[in-house]
Design a protein that fits this description.
Layout: H1 6-19, H2 22-27, H3 36-40, H4 62-80, H5 88-100, H6 108-118, H7 124-143, H8 148-164
Protein name: NF1 protein
Length: 170
């Protein structure tokens, strides 16, 4: 049974209110709707007219992911204060690291950003791996400047390194 402090409840209420504002719809990639529920439940069982190609999908910027991740981290940290043995953040960090260092053009850039945002410590080996990923992205960009995935990977590594750099030993 979870017993939350008033401070935690306040953080949760404020976060829910903030996520419900139209300005946050853009961060979640659903800015072209009047209500988030419209897009969330559009593909319900009864609505067979919906197909993945029947609407214009918005791009989800890595900077938006950074903001959303930081907001979710704030919520998680508030809840973790009320659960002394909670390992949620450790598990999230392990998963983000796993996908950040595994080649996958769709997931790797997002995982790098999340890993950078949620990590509380970083090793020199992890930084070296991120720099290798950056190097591969740069090599790929030099081969063909129209390679969108490489540009996204470069952006993700820069965001991750920017977030992780303060965690390094001097």
């Amino acid at each position: 049974q979870l017993h939350s402090t008033e401070e935690t409840k306040q953080v949760l209420k404020l976060s829910l209110t903030e996520f419900s504002l139209p300005k946050f719809y853009l961060l979640f990639g659903i800015s072209k709707v009047k209500s988030a529920a419209v897009i969330a439940f559009r593909s319900s069982y009864r609505d067979r007219s919906f197909s993945p190609g029947s609407y214009e999908r918005e791009t989800f910027a890595l900077t938006s992911l950074e903001t959303v991740t930081e907001a979710l981290l704030e919520i998680m940290e508030a809840c973790m204060r009320d659960v002394p043995t909670c390992k949620w953040l450790d598990q999230w960090t392990e998963l983000a690291q796993k996908f950040a260092f595994q080649y996958n053009p769709s997931l790797q850039p997002r995982a790098l950003v999340v890993f950078g945002c949620i990590s509380k410590r970083v090793s020199h080996g992890q930084i070296k791996q991120i720099i290798r990923i950056l190097s591969k992205g740069l090599e790929s960009c030099l081969k063909g400047p129209d390679n969108y995935n490489s540009q996204v990977l470069i952006e993700a590594t820069v965001i991750a390194l920017t977030k992780l750099q303060p965690l390094l030993n001097k």
